[in-house]
Every structure is written in structure tokens, then in C-alpha cells.
TrEMBL record:
<dbReference type="Pfam" id="PF18701">
    <property type="entry name" value="DUF5641"/>
</dbReference>
<protein>
    <recommendedName>
        <fullName>DUF5641 domain-containing protein</fullName>
    </recommendedName>
</protein>
<feature type="domain" description="DUF5641">
    <location>
        <begin position="108"/>
        <end position="201"/>
    </location>
</feature>
<dbReference type="InterPro" id="IPR040676">
    <property type="entry name" value="DUF5641"/>
</dbReference>
Length: 205
């Protein structure tokens, strides 16, 4: 048996085993991260591509060892152990990459949903609420609010979902007899607001 040849092949195989161990340690570090940043993601892709080429070298060395050895069965366990570790590490690395891609996809969907939500509320406040106000102007009594009417109180700087709902309990006419403000009963108490900030609801409750 060319014993010297086998020893040389075993040394080469040991070098591959060391690289597998290094890659395993590297993955352990990444698993401890909540999220892979762009640099980590790119580095993992490069390392994985290089790591996957190791199997060809390992299989070549291992096959020669098994053919030249007088007791090849002694080396079959080494093959099984190394291959098992190799496949698990490749699968783990690909899982980390897929998780990052999935997170990016969810982030894009979330941003899209947020954009649509903001767009909806902007149109709601600019179109529907304005329509509810019926374009009431101070100099005219047409379309005046009435006591007992349910309204929404428009607040600048707040999203429509946070606008208060209330019921008009008192109208406050000016010296000219034109009502420009009203007292509204809300869950926070009685609030006085000008007509242009009061949005009557098309319901009677």
C-alpha cells in the first residue's frame, strides 16, 4: 500500500475539515445577529460560493484514500461525518440568506401599505371631510349646524382617526346674529370650535 500517498491525502483532507470548522464558526456569529446588514449579506454570499467548491476537493481526496487504503471501511465514517456537517452548513447558510431576502420583501410591502394608508387618509381629510362641512361660509346661514347634531372635530396635525367625535350642545351666534362657533360635548368634555373645524356627520343619533 502506498502509505505515504495516503498520509498526504489525509493531510489534505484535514485542511478541508479545518475550513469547514472555520465556516461553522462564522455562521454561529451570524446566527447571533438579529438582522444581516448589507455587508454581512454580501460577505455570506461570497463565502458560501467559495465553501461549496470544497466538496469537490474533499470527494476527490476521500475517494483516493478509500481506494488506496487496505481498510477503506475505516474511512467511510469520516466521509459520512464530514459530508453531514458540510450539507448542514450549506443549508444553514442558505436559510440565513433566504431570511434576509424575505425580511427585505416584508419591509417593502410594509412601506407600500404605509404609503397607501397615508394616501387614503390624506384623500379622506381633503375630500370627504370637506364635503361633510358642506362648504359652509360665515356670512350665510345656509347649511348651519344645529344643536344635537353629531359632528367630527377637525384637528390640524392629527390623523383623522384621532379626531374627536361629539354632539353639538350649544350654538354661539355673534353680534351680527350669525353663528360662527359651537360648543361640542366630547369624551374629553365640552369643546368650543369654529364652524370651519366642525364636520357634521350625515346621521341622526
Amino acid at each position: 500500500m502506498p502509505e505515504g500517498k495516503v498520509k498526504d491525502l489525509i493531510k489534505r483532507r484535514a485542511s478541508i475539515k479545518a475550513k469547514i470548522t472555520q465556516f461553522s464558526t462564522y455562521l454561529d456569529v451570524l446566527r447571533g445577529c438579529d438582522y444581516l446588514n448589507d455587508v454581512q449579506f454580501s460577505e455570506l454570499q461570497v463565502r458560501l460560493e467559495k465553501f461549496e467548491t470544497l466538496y469537490g476537493d474533499f470527494d476527490t481526496f476521500q475517494s483516493e484514500i478509500e481506494m488506496l487504503s487496505d481498510a477503506p471501511e475505516d474511512h467511510y465514517k469520516d466521509r459520512e461525518s464530514i459530508e453531514s456537517q458540510y450539507y448542514k452548513l450549506v443549508a444553514s447558510a442558505r436559510t440565513l440568506l433566504d431570511q434576509r431576502k424575505n425580511n427585505d420583501g416584508r419591509s417593502e410591502r410594509f412601506q407600500r401599505i404605509e404609503y397607501l394608508k397615508q394616501h387614503f387618509w390624506q384623500r379622506f381629510s381633503n375630500e370627504y371631510v370637506v364635503w361633510l362641512q358642506q362648504k359652509m361660509k360665515w356670512p350665510t346661514q345656509k347649511g348651519d349646524l344645529k344643536e344635537g347634531m353629531m359632528v367630527v372635530i377637525k384637528e390640524k396635525g392629527l390623523p383623522p382617526l384621532m379626531w374627536l367625535l361629539g354632539r353639538i350642545i350649544r350654538l354661539c351666534p355673534g353680534r351680527d346674529g350669525i353663528t360662527r362657533v359651537a360648543d361640542i360635548l366630547t369624551k374629553k368634555g365640552v369643546i368650543r370650535r369654529a364652524y370651519n373645524n366642525i364636520c357634521p356627520l350625515p346621521v341622526n343619533i
